[in-house]
Amino acid sequence: xxxxxxxxxxxxxxxxxxxxxxxxxxxxxxxxxxxxxxxxxxxxxxxxxxxxxxxxxxxxxxxxxxxxxxxxxxxxxxxxxxxxxxxxxxxxxxxxxxxxxxxxxxxxxxxxxxxxxxxxxxxxxxxxxxxxxxxxxxxxxxxxxxxxxxxxxxxx
Amino acid sequence: xxxxxxxxxxxxxxxxxxxxxxxxxxxxxxxxxxxxxxxxxxxxxxxxxxxxxxxxxxxxxxxxxxxxxxxxxxxxxxxxxxxxxxxxxxxxxxxxxxxxxxxxxxxxxxxxxxxxxxxxxxxxxxxxxxxxxxxxxxxxxxxxxxxxxxxxxxxx
Lengths: 156, 156
Description:
Chain A has strands spanning 18-28, 31-44, 50-57, 63-73, 78-85, 89-98, 101-111, 118-128, 131-140, 146-155. With 156 residues, chain A is mainly beta. In chain A, a hairpin with a 2-residue loop joins strand 8 and strand 9 (131-140).
């Protein structure tokens, strides 16, 4: 299998393609603050969407979180993200792409009966050269939307 | 990286693990009936969930659909599934596991602004020896829940 060329609709998002590694920190009123290492890979299969695979580890190197989804260009300056998490959560996002700055907010969060209650998620992502930074705000377990995660990753 | 042992909570779902290949057919009042080939892989990473990757191709061998998600055991006889699709759709399912028979129905469907309207999805899956069969019913684009897909796959 040879890799097909990047779909023309993905040109504005091609800066994301590849594997990024780095570290971040998380916090929330209901938990203790923590640090993590992270790897994110954006891939493509020749169709007009990116695949998104994320994995984190705690400071002992144990797997922490993972999520998988798809990024879709949506017209001029529009961007969409859908993702699933093994914690029983799905996120459906709509947002804007301005150069290498992405702002996404959930239009829907899906929860299985045993999942922890998440109400909304906001994801802001910037790429500056070989550095990717993001911040994730979340409303969950009865708290209003606020800081949950931020990280800085480097292109591999 | 060595593969960790299967998490003890996954024992009732271990029959799904591996790669399955076969073919199916699809239909819906709003489209022409079609046939497809399919590959499904259930994997694990040592944690109490399965990964689920599905790919289909049309009869010319062109990629058709793909989806990715996680299967979670949920107490005695309970099962949950979350998945994302590059069409801008997320599905959040809850259901039951009876031996090697699985019945899942959506508790939530998430749609990005540019996604086609899907209201509900029902997935029934059976494994009999080396054969996996499933049927998918869907309510979409204003139609009530009805047959959309069925396929028969063989363990590779």
